[in-house]
């Protein structure tokens, strides 16, 4: 099966609830699905993979019991999927992700290369992306999608300017200066000096990487949630795998064996810029805004104990 990772962008027009469950077993009209899900179906059909896991359809929405049961299966869903389809550039489920991307450049326009053969002349057009503009893709800002990517063995990322393939050892894209690079997941997990297991365990080994739990928390907590109450829930699948590999005891986003050092976390205050300057003192200087640190109040509602990073934004 394929698993879909995407940004909801609001309530879903087609979702499985207790009221729609029986009808969805009979079938869901393709044209009724949001464009992103339609495109995911097309990718599955193109890859000849018969099944597709989508949270809005495979989890009974509004049913807390079913949600807890399915969240417990999340590591296996993404770790054992043949490939995860990531709609990286879509801001909502109705955007879709199969479209002509063209190319992007600032100072490096595309060039045409001619290759002369015995009887024919082939013309190719090469593109070089000067900046990693896809780093700002919407999927990188959402909290739920972090564990979906981290747990997946293989990911097809439909980014803003290119299609990227990422697995345990290689990240490869059409449109980069380097055709094949060890990047992304491979930065943390590829160790060429070690003999690779010909039949590796079918899950993404978090604790065996160079990525510490604090790095995971830093990356995750910089992302946004639609519902603050999901703060720990949206990281629960990674916590399950980490517990399985280390045997540590999980305590609301921290690990008992890491205490008391794990309590030494802090939140960076937000920065705003004050553009007011004293003209009499800065007549010969360019007026630049000065940064000001803004401390936020602790969020209302109980998301965890006060000693856990999950209790604040």
UniProtKB/TrEMBL annotation:
Skewed-composition ranges (Polar residues): 303-313
Residue ranges, annotated region (Disordered): 276-313
Pfam families: HET
The Heterokaryon incompatibility domain, residue ranges: 1-148
Residue ranges of coiled coil: none
Name this polypeptide is given: Heterokaryon incompatibility domain-containing protein
Gene source species: Neurospora tetrasperma (strain FGSC 2508 / ATCC MYA-4615 / P0657)
Classification lineage: Eukaryota, Fungi, Dikarya, Ascomycota, Pezizomycotina
């Amino acid at each position: 099966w394929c698993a879909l990772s995407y940004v909801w962008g609001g309530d879903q027009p087609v979702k499985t609830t207790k009221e729609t469950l029986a009808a969805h077993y009979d079938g869901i009209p393709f044209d009724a699905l949001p464009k992103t899900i339609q495109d995911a179906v097309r990718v599955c059909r193109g890859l000849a993979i018969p099944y597709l896991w989508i949270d809005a359809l495979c989890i009974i929405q509004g049913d807390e019991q079913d949600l807890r049961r399915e969240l417990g299966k999340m590591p296996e869903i993404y770790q054992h999927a043949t490939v995860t389809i990531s709609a990286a550039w879509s801001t909502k489920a109705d955007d879709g992700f199969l479209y002509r991307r063209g190319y992007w450049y600032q100072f490096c326009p595309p060039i045409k290369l001619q290759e002369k053969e015995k009887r024919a002349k082939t013309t190719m057009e090469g593109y070089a992306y000067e900046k990693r503009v896809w780093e700002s893709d919407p999927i990188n800002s959402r909290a739920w999608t972090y564990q979906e990517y981290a747990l997946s063995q293989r990911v097809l990322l439909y980014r803003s300017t290119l299609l990227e393939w990422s697995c345990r050892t290689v990240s490869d894209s059409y449109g980069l200066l380097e055709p094949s690079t060890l990047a992304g997941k491979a930065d943390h997990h590829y160790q060429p000096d070690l003999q690779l297991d010909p039949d590796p365990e079918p899950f993404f080994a978090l604790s065996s990487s160079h990525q510490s739990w604090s790095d995971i928390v830093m990356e995750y907590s910089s992302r946004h949630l639609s519902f603050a109450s999901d703060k720990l829930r949206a990281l629960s699948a990674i916590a399950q795998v980490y517990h399985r590999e280390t045997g540590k005891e999980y305590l609301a986003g921290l690990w008992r064996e890491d205490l008391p050092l794990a309590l030494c976390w802090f939140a960076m205050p937000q920065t705003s810029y004050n553009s007011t300057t004293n003209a009499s003192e800065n007549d010969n200087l360019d007026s630049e805004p000065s940064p000001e640190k803004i401390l936020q109040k602790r969020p209302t509602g109980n998301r965890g104990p006060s000693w856990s990073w999950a209790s604040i934004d």
